[in-house]
From TrEMBL:
This is 3-isopropylmalate dehydrogenase. Keywords: Amino-acid biosynthesis, Branched-chain amino acid biosynthesis, Cytoplasm, Leucine biosynthesis, Magnesium, Manganese, Metal-binding, NAD, Oxidoreductase. The keyword Methyltransferase does not apply. The gene is leuB. It comes from Parapedobacter koreensis. The record marks Y142, K189 as: Important for catalysis. Catalyzes the oxidation of 3-carboxy-2-hydroxy-4-methylpentanoate (3-isopropylmalate) to 3-carboxy-4-methyl-2-oxopentanoate. The product decarboxylates to 4-methyl-2 oxopentanoate. GO terms for biological process: L-leucine biosynthetic process. Belongs to the isocitrate and isopropylmalate dehydrogenases family. LeuB type 1 subfamily. The lineage of its organism: Bacteria, Pseudomonadati, Bacteroidota, Sphingobacteriia, Sphingobacteriales.
Length: 351
């Protein structure tokens, strides 16, 4: 049966890396005889320029009708430099997550051993790191009421969580832990935040249903430290939206680069697959971006979105082979990088 895949390249390096992810899906379709039909749509800064909104209705309708979405990145330096702008690229991403019910953002942080070879050694890389993050994606301060006082002197973002929101992401994390090393670390700030006390209470209740899984609760600040100190100690981490955003970017450094991390956002309907990195405007259009996060996102689309496990494994194995052969984009080239074969986005994607 035909699978309809919506490609949303987005902004900055989004189009370059997503082209590589899409090419991999085309190759998989050809090799395995799958019928993938592709459509493209706009979101983010480019969509604002073209239509005045970050998520045009046409894009959202296409997203709802598709079987899976491969997305690049949103964001533009213009909005970083001018915080008063009211229409912003990220609004498109947030509306997409909320309205598609994408409450579980799954972020595997795995070190490819091939990056450990002497020529690419970075001191911060830790052998054996294999963490599966579950970032809650449709709640917390991202979606709570946002206020700016009339005189502009006060601003607030309400961090709101409901019991059901914590429960459903916790269940996903515990179920995943059962297929792995059977450890869940729930991250909160329960010594300060009421929403975190609810979070901890609900995770404790869910944990009772999984007596075979070892559960720990860790404060977000301590977790930030432990992820650098003892990354191999962690198996599955479940946390709220903002902590998850920050901690996964941090942990990316332990496995080499943000350019290596893919993600799957799942929930009530169509799955949404994207690299965790943003639009990186500083290197956009220069053939410098690492496309592996997009390629690995395509692998997650195959595995989680379509249940095509063998095809997904082939994509992951191909990434490992290319790294073993010494090919590196500059973000994953070591300090002693003279032995690395430095390649650009297009060449890395084509290997
Ligand atoms: N591909 C990820 C991306 O585009 N990130 C941009 C961004 O601003 N994301 C906000 C967030 O995920 O919290």
């Amino acid at each position: 049966m035909q699978k309809n895949i919506l490609i949303i390249p987005g902004d900055g390096i989004g189009p370059e890396v997503t082209a590589c992810g899409k090419a991999v899906l085309e190759e998989v379709a050809a090799r395995y005889g799958y019928a993938f039909a592709f459509e493209e749509a706009q979101m983010g800064h480019e969509a604002i320029l073209a239509t005045g909104v970050a998520l045009p209705d046409e894009t959202f309708e296409k997203a709802k009708a598709s079987d899976a979405i491969l997305f690049g990145a949103v964001g533009h330096v213009r909005y970083d430099n001018d915080p008063t702008l009211k229409v912003r690229p990220e609004q498109g991403l947030f509306r997409m997550r909320k309205e598609l019910g994408l409450y579980a953002n799954i972020r595997p942080v795995i070190l490819f051993d091939e990056l450990l070879d002497a020529s690419s050694l970075k001191p911060e890389i830790v052998k054996g790191t294999d963490i599966l993050f579950f970032r809650e994606l449709t709640g917390g301060a991202y979606f709570g009421e946002k206020v700016r006082s009339e005189d502009g002197e006060m601003a607030s973002d309400l961090m709101v969580y409901h019991r059901y929101e914590v429960e459903r992401i916790a269940v996903k994390a515990f179920e995943a832990a059962r297929t792995r090393r059977k450890k869940v670390c729930s991250v909160d700030k329960a010594n300060v935040l009421e929403s975190s006390r609810l979070w901890r209470e609900v995770v404790q209740q869910v944990a009772r249903r999984y007596p075979d899984v070892e559960t720990t609760h860790m404060l977000a600040d301590n977790t930030a430290m432990q992820l650098i100190k003892h990354p191999t100690w962690f198996d599955v981490i479940v946390t709220e939206n903002l902590f998850g955003d920050i901690l996964t970017d941090e942990t990316a450094q332990v496995v080499g680069s943000m350019g290596m991390l893919a993600s799957a956002s799942i929930g009530d309907g169509t799955g949404f697959f994207e690299p965790i990195h943003g639009s990186a405007y500083d290197i956009a259009g220069q053939d410098k971006a690492n496309p592996l996060a997009s390629i690995l996102s395509a692998a997650l689309l195959l595995e989680i979105g379509f249940g095509m496990k063998e095809a997904a494994k082939q994509v992951n194995d191909a990434v490992a082979r290319v790294l073993k052969a010494g090919y590196r984009t500059s973000d994953i080239s070591g300090r002693m990088g003279h032995k690395d074969k430095i390649v650009g986005t297009r060449e890395m994607g084509a290997l």
